[in-house]
Design brief:
alpha/beta; elongated; 274 residues; four-stranded parallel beta sheet; 7 helices
């Protein structure tokens, strides 16, 4: 029988010859450590790379600094030997964006409402603007209100009395030259801005791809537009169709450029300094 008394040492190395292992600790700026060889104690202030390897710079209580090589178990941290390493540099994360593409303000509380307003033609317009620009409007303290029809614009402006600090931005559907909408929105004064898009209804300002269709159907003149759209696409009632359109929009990329530009100009107008 072969004596195996030393087989363990032969295979794994004798305990007295095995190199000790030390925990690795990222040397964050300001961390106080002690060089195990010299007893020099100081705070980490930086790192330098030379032809001879990587070094850490320590600053003592007298604000004198020295360089020490980064080596296994070369430092004491809170009395225990450690291997200092250079901290991993993390790439700064990109700022989060709101649905409109602006930088999102984190931890924000809604600002007190301004005197200025943005008016839109109907509830669907208001919901869509809120869905994409809601974060921006809360940051700026801008309230969006439905007119319930452009025919009400003149009376509502008379009651609101626009002026300094009380501007009105108006978003209009089907704002094309020669239309009824264009005639109702002329010569409203310096404190009122009207912008709009060329589409019959704000539904049509949602990109067809977003709602899963190739294009918006043509609705014969004289037929209710929303009803005609839902009949053509098999969407049920206009209420069912609106839920489908609204839920398809999550960012400004789901909207046509004409609507995006129109809303952005109104937000700038009602929030610019007097």
């Amino acid at each position: 029988m072969v004596d195996n008394r030393y087989s363990g040492d032969i295979l794994s190395g004798h305990a007295r010859t095995r190199r000790p292992s030390y925990p690795s600790v990222p040397a964050e700026p300001g961390m106080v450590v002690e060089d195990a060889a010299s007893g020099y104690c100081g705070a980490v202030t930086g790192f330098e790379r030379t032809y001879d390897g990587d070094f850490v710079r320590l600053e003592d209580a007298a604000r004198c600094t020295r360089l020490f090589r980064l080596r296994d178990g070369g430092f004491l941290l809170e009395g225990k030997r450690v291997t200092l390493t250079k901290p991993v540099q993390r790439m700064p994360s990109a700022p989060r964006r709101s649905a409109s593409g602006s930088v999102r303000v984190e931890g924000m509380r809604a600002r007190t409402a301004r005197g200025s307003r943005i008016w839109v033609e109907g509830l669907h317009d208001a919901e869509l603007v809120e869905r994409v620009w809601g974060h921006d409007l809360r940051v700026e303290g801008v309230v969006v209100e439905p007119l319930e029809g452009l025919d009400n614009l003149a009376d509502k402006l008379a009651r609101f009395e626009p002026g300094p600090g009380r501007k009105v931005g108006v978003l209009v559907d089907h704002l094309v030259e020669g239309s009824k909408e264009s005639r109702l929105t002329q010569s409203l004064g310096q404190y009122v801005m009207v912008t709009g898009h060329p589409y019959v209804d704000i539904w049509e300002a949602v990109r067809p791809k977003a709602v899963g269709i190739a294009k918006w159907p043509n609705v014969p003149r004289g037929q209710d537009w929303k009803t005609g759209i839902c009949d053509s696409l098999g969407w049920g009632t206009p209420q069912d169709g609106w839920r489908r359109v609204r839920d398809a929009v999550s960012t400004f990329r789901d909207l046509e450029a004409d609507l995006i530009g129109a809303v952005e100009r109104l937000v700038d107008f009602v929030t610019e300094p007097e």
